[in-house]
Amino acid sequence: MKKIKLIAAAIMLCLLVAPSVFAGGKAEGQKEEEEVVKLTFMLSQNRHFQAYDDIADALRAEENIDIEYLVIPDDQWQSLLKLKLSTGEVPDIFVANAPERYESLNVYENCVDLSNEPWVSRLVNPKMLYGKDGKIYAVPLQSSNCYEACYYNKDVFNSLNLTEPQTMEEFFDMLETVKNSGTGIIPWYGSDKASWTTQIFMTAGLPVLLGDRGPETWDKLMANKMKWADIPEFKDLLYQFLSIYEKGYANKDHLSADYDLACEVVGKGEALLIFNGEWCVSEIERYGAEVGTFVMPFREDKKILSTGAYVDGFFIPKASPRVEAAKKALNLMSQPKYLNIFFQDRPGFPGFKDADGGSTPPAVQQLVDEYIASGQWVNELEAPPLSFVSAIMDSLWTLYVEMISGGKTPEGVLAAWDEKFADFMTEKEQPGW
Asked: Are 294 and 149 in contact (CB under 8 A)?
């Protein structure tokens, strides 16, 4: 027994004086292991992909950077982020639309200028990221983003002998066919708990309907020479959207359904389609579905794809106590080694010249080939100059939800939005207000 105690004591002594031998430490002459840097990374639920977790695992193993994701429900994201920025209790990094959210988040005062970071020279589309001061405040994930279209389950589409609608009348006839098919399949899946999904129909449709009159209309709105209620196309869109719900084409639980559930239901063939962005394709495909797509036929003379004038951007708040560490992490995440992890899981169009975007899903490539490459596209409603009012756009989204839940008429939505818009422009002391 005494001998065993002596051996144990010797082992303990060795552990104390030479931890590298027994505990995987550094041998003499080697550098001590770097201290782990912990960073908080805030993002909304609809942006929390497995690929981000895989990147975090790689950074932890290879760079001693430990990323903790703060995942916020979609319907709380905007307000919580603004609150954190206003109080200084910020994450080290957050994700938001860039440059669309520059104004609403006041990145000019709240976020770090990244214009001189080493990754800037590798950008595919740097001009998109410039703010009004000519500076860049976000590391872009993509070079282009947000193709607003109908994404459908091909098996369901083909089993019901549906054809791609060329007019809005044909679109509603298609929904009626699905409703009366006796299959129980939901024609249109609404995920209106997440109001960012509700707004896409109007955000995409109005610029398409206005066409060449769009820029002039936006200028008049900004200069107080026109009201939103004076745009007949806007009211028509609201009535069209409302009719989807009034005619029973949408799921009854749409007010409690979120984006993740929408992708699952379409993926399982329980619903025909959702109207969303191309990011939903990968999510729907996870359930074994083949995804098809068509552009909403808002106009009868030609089809036009509405796209977002923004990309997913990674921002660093000035109030973070770990700004330099966050810069290092984002520079690493911009490298092909880490970006390729993301695009291998979610193929797309990288924001950097040397990254591999992976194999683009056929449905997305179809939109690129037919509309982007041919110039048959237009920026969505919240593109400049209207991105200036992005700080209050979520109020408009809420009005849409109120309308389809029976709380407002389309005219009521327009009146309430005109009032909110006027208050904001007056507060900002814009010319003409």
From this structure: yes
Residue 3 has pLDDT above 80, yes or no: no
* Helix 390-404 × helix 232-246 angle, to 10°: 40
Q: What is the DSSP string of 165-211?
A: -SSHHHHHHHHHHHHTSSS--EEE---TTSHHHHTHHHHHHHHHHHG
C-alpha distances (whole Å) from 240 to each of 192, 236, 243, 320 are 16, 6, 5, 45
Closest listed residue to residue 171, CA positions, set 32, 72, 296, 26: 296
Domains of the chain in start order, with CATH, are 37-144+311-361 (3.40.190.10), 145-309+368-427 (3.40.190.10)
Per-position DSSP letters for 37-86, written without gaps between them: EEEEEEEEGGG--HHHHHHHHHHHHHH-EEEEEEEE-HHHHHHHHHHHHH
Distances, alpha carbon 105 to alpha carbons 77, 110, 351, 388, 396, in Å: 12, 7, 22, 11, 17
Q: 303 with 204: CB under 8 angstroms?
A: no
Amino acid symbol at 198: T
pLDDT band at 34 (very low <50, low <70, confident <90, very high): low
Tokens of 270: 């329980």
Report residue 34: phi and psi, to 5°: -65, 150
pLDDT at 384 over 50: yes
Instruction: Encode pLDDT of 200-225 as tens digits.
Output: 999 999 999 999 999 999 999 999 99
Tally of CB atoms within 10 A around 118: 10
pLDDT tier, 145 (very low <50, low <70, confident <90, very high otherwise)? confident
* String of DSSP letters for 116-127: TSGGGGGBS-GG
Contact criterion met (CB below 8 Å) for 293 and 151: yes
Provide the pLDDT for residue 32: 45
pTM over 0.85: no
**pLDDT 10s digits, 68-78:** 999 999 889 88
Cβ neighbours of 215 (radius 10 Å):
13
